[in-house]
TrEMBL record:
It comes from Falcunculus frontatus (Eastern shriketit). It comes from the Eukaryota. This is R-spondin-3. Residues 11-110 form the R-spondin Fu-CRD domain. Residues 169-243 are annotated as: Disordered. The lineage of its organism: Eukaryota, Metazoa, Chordata, Craniata, Vertebrata. Residues 175-219 have a biased composition (Basic and acidic residues). Residues 116-170 form the Spondin-like TSP1 domain. Pfam families: Furin-like_2 (PF15913), TSP1_spondin (PF19028). Belongs to the R-spondin family.
Length: 243
């Protein structure tokens, strides 16, 4: 240590030197040595950098290095993240996962093997043949199930999710599509015919009422107006005067 020790340090240092940097830190800060080329200098940090873990003592808080295969650690013997090529398991970094576990290349951890899980089978479908349920004696019926848990890389693969088997039904005739279509067409025509009949009746009623109204108007126009009865007193007055 360089003998020139200063008390007026920067960056959280309690004591420092021009050659070695921080020699001690202020309370609650961690002291760590950083290498710059061939030289190491002391720095004071609020938390330890990657590859180090912190230890607190009454006189000083220090950052110590993790194991070589550990990227970050809680203590020297408990790693929280491994370096490339290693898999984390129970605080240790392993090149190969133990039996019963598999390597997860996404999280770089050893995880439990997950097997495929499926739901219960659905009921059998109606007996069908070429998409129809009539017009045949022998057909097929199917049932299905869903995947509720996909397997991991080393897990058991999923089984078939559908099954089919032969079935026998009592033969029955299929309703001809043309006949059904014909019935629907007849019903539609009948409905349109009824609607047209009602419309014609309403039109006839309106025409009859309009004709009656026009007839009354014509009668009023052709009928002569009644003349008023003459006023006898007015007719006789000139005669009396002349006499």
């Amino acid at each position: 240590v360089h003998p020139n020790v200063s008390q007026g340090c920067q960056g959280g240092c309690a004591t420092c030197s021009d050659y070695n940097g921080c020699l001690s830190c202020k309370p609650r800060l961690f002291f760590v040595l950083e290498r710059i080329g061939m030289k190491q200098i002391g720095v004071c940090l609020s938390s330890c950098p990657s590859g180090y873990y912190g230890t607190r003592y009454p006189d000083i808080n220090k950052c110590a290095k993790c194991k070589a295969d550990c990227d970050t650690c809680f203590t020297r013997n408990f790693c929280t993240k491994c370096k490339s090529g290693f898999y984390l398991y129970s605080g240790k970094c392993l090149e190969k996962c133990p039996d019963g576990l598999e390597a997860n290349n996404h999280t770089m951890e050893c995880t439990s093997i997950v097997h495929c899980e499926t739901s219960e089978w659905s009921p059998w479908s109606p007996c069908m043949k070429k998409g129809k349920t009539c017009g045949f004696k022998r057909g097929n019926e199917v049932r299905v199930r869903e995947i509720v848990q996909h397997p991991s890389a080393r897990g058991n693969p999923c089984p078939a999710t559908s099954e089919s088997r032969k079935c026998i039904v009592q033969r029955k005739r299929c309703q001809k599509e043309g006949k059904g279509k014909k019935n629907r067409e007849e019903k539609r025509k009948k409905s349109n015919k009824d609607d047209s009949k009602e419309t014609r009746q309403e039109s006839k009623g309106r025409a009859a009422r309009r004709q009656n109204r026009e007839q009354r108007e014509n009668n009023n126009k052709t009928q002569p107006k009644k003349r008023k009865a003459p006023n006898k007193e007015q007719d006789l007055a000139p005669a009396d005067t002349a006499h």
